Amino acid sequence: MAKKILIIDDDNDIIEALQLVLDSKGYDVQSTLTTKGALALVKSLAPDLIILDVMFPESSSEGFDLARELNRDPDGRKVPILMLSAVNARFNLGFSNKDRDENWLPVAEFMEKPVQPAKLLKRIEELLG
Fold this sequence. Notes:
The chain has helices at residues 12-24, 38-45, 62-72, 87-91, 117-128, and strands at residues 4-8, 28-32, 49-52, 81-85, 109-112. With 129 residues, the protein is α/β, with parallel strands linked by helices. It has a single domain, classed as Response regulator (Rossmann fold), CATH 3.40.50.2300. It has a 5-stranded parallel sheet with strand order 2-1-3-4-5, with helices on both faces.
């Protein structure tokens, strides 16, 4: 059975590019352009992995907020989050895996956009076991 990946990103071009890469490897890919209702979506889809952006129109830190919300939920916290963002390119904040934290940045991986497809796929395979 194909592993399910949920992409949460406000950029449809990014979603389409990720979908092409993930579909080519046989993943079952779902997506949403907003964080609104994301927890309910995670509960209904039961994805094996979430690819989450940081910046959304609502807030430049909306992805961080959603990661913390998912971490507080018994179902949401079971799903590893791969945070994929251009936040550093846009704001030069220097976020990286060293900032991962159970409460502040509860994600399994932090990767920069743009990311090479092979590097992304390798990390996804590692996260999915």
